[in-house]
Write a structure and sequence with these properties.
This protein has 430 residues and is mainly alpha-helical. Helices cover 51% and strands 7% of the residues. Strand 2 and strand 3 form a beta hairpin. The structure holds acetyl coenzyme *A.
């Protein structure tokens, strides 16, 4: 980061000068940290679209050009050459691991897959129809209770145990997710296997039956690994900013990622992958090829889920990669999904339509991710949970950045628009 002179603001006839800071990729920001003290003014930025809430070394996005890089590496390269655990290491520790570092990380993650037996009681405490995101958020916070030395809310101590707690969360989020699925179907829980790699182990935890060991087709492992990689981090999105917000108050990693899961759940964020499949199914059931739905979206009567993004005003590079992966996995498994045809038609129609062009609305990561997940047998109500498993490294890396860095609690201001002061009146009338 460098500093450049300067931005001038004139308020009520008086001129104030603020430094301009410049990021690695030439992103420029006016540093207004002293503004309120000097001028008595704050800035107003509903939804934070123009606000840099932090400095971060983890992920770079250029939304105009459709660029996504983690620690300097292009997402296209990572998607082609890396694996989820290797990318998780890069995101969390800043450098690609050596072979021995990767092996050690794999072993650490692999060795942490089991859950304390008492966890069964937590699962039993939920109604069978509980939404898996509600269960996941609660379980991740509960997990911290089993490791008080890692969840002390004493930053130095929590950081001392960081390597352990990071590996543990990456591992156990997958075990909890699979157990939630099994619980919702009334199926017995599976124990993790030491001989299986990350993704295969997850699929085993999900789908092995006592009488039928699940054998993972290579196409499924590849598609799921890719899905997880493409969700691993995405700078200051709603859930990651939530994790940072919670972390800034000094909360431990478990509590912070648990809050991240809740933030991710919403349909405008991680819940969009579920909403996309519902939309495609509704379109299919109504006999529409997507044209009527596009018109409804233009008339403001519907929202084309999986389209549009706060940052990308171009194609989300992850959507391109997942669109191709959807075709590959359906081909490899010999499946045909009419929803893919509808998605393709919607995409082509929207990309040519003035409404979407003017608003720079392009497919985002969620547009094709549901089709990939559906093809590999993940039930729809688990889609956002899959996103959470993928996003765990990003949340962990962002927690670490906050815990190691700034000591300031995140605390935005507001502009109060409620009633001015008025005298208290005793309740009156009936
Ligand atoms: N379908 C139709 N119109 C849309 C869509 C859409 N998906 N997205 C935005 N618009 C329109 C809005 O109606 C608005 O039109 P107007 O200017 O005529 O009022 C204009 O485009 C700008 O929209 P905003 O909502 O202001 O854009 P914002 O940056 O706040 O929202 C968001 C981004 C939430 C992602 C939005 O595009 C959306 O709701 N998309 C669908 C949900 C989705 O796919 N979410 C996943 C995002 S990626 C992720 O979190 C992993």
């Amino acid at each position: 980061m460098s500093r450049e002179p300067t931005a001038k603001i004139i308020l009520e006839g008086k001129e104030y000068t603020y430094p301009v800071i410049v990021g690695t990729e030439n992103e420029r920001a006016i540093d207004i940290r002293k503004m309120r003290g000097e001028t008595g003014h704050i800035t107003y930025d509903d939804g934070y679209g123009n606000t840099g809430s932090c400095l971060s070394d983890i992920t770079y996005i250029d939304g105009e050009q459709g660029i996504l890089r983690h620690r300097g590496y292009a997402i296209e390269d990572l998607a082609e050459k890396s694996t989820f655990l290797c990318l998780a290491y890069l995101i969390i520790y800043g450098e690609l691991p050596t072979r021995s570092q990767l092996e050690a990380f794999r072993n650490k993650v692999g060795g942490a897959a089991g859950l304390h037996e008492d966890f069964r009681h937590h699962f039993q405490g939920f109604p069978q129809k509980a939404h898996p995101m509600a269960v996941l958020s609660s379980m991740l916070n509960s997990l911290g209770c089993y490791y008080p030395e890692m969840s002390s809310n004493n930053r130095e101590q929590d950081l001392e145990h960081f390597d352990e707690s990071a590996a543990l969360l990456i591992s156990k989020v997958r075990t909890i997710a699979a157990a939630t699925y099994r619980m919702s179907r009334g199926l017995p829980f599976n124990f993790p296997r030491k001989d299986l790699r990350y993704v295969q182990n997850f699929l085993h935890l999900m789908f092995t039956e006592p009488y039928d060991e699940y054998e993972t087709p290579a196409a499924v492992t590849e598609a799921l690994d890719l899905f997880l990689m493409l969700h691993a981090d995405h700078e200051q999105n709603c859930s990651t900013s939530t994790v940072r917000m919670v972390a800034s108050g000094g909360a431990n990693l478990f509590a912070s990622v648990s809050a991240g899961v809740s933030a991710l759940w919403g349909p405008l964020h991680g819940g969009a992958n579920t909403a996309v499949i519902k939309m495609l199914e509704d379109i299919h059931a109504s006999g529409d090829d997507g044209s009527r739905f596009i018109q409804a979206a233009k008339d403001g009567k519907a929202r084309l889920m999986g389209f549009g993004h706060r940052v990308y005003k171009n194609y989300d590079p992850r959507a391109k990669i997942l669109g191709q992966a959807a075709e590959r996995v359906l081909d490899a498994l010999g499946l045909q999904d009419p929803l893919l045809d509808i998605a393709r038609h919607l995409e082509q129609a929207a990309l040519k339509d003035a409404y979407f062009i003017e608003r720079k609305l392009y497919p985002n990561v969620d547009f094709y991710s549901g089709i990939v997940l559906k093809a590999i047998g993940i039930p729809v109500n688990m889609f956002t949970v899959m996103f959470a498993i993928g996003r765990m490294p990003g949340w962990i890396a962002n927690w670490k950045e906050v815990a190691e860095g700034s000591k300031r609690i995140y605390r935005p201001r507001q502009i109060y628009t409620g009633p001015a002061q008025r005298p208290y009146a005793e309740p009156r009338g009936k």
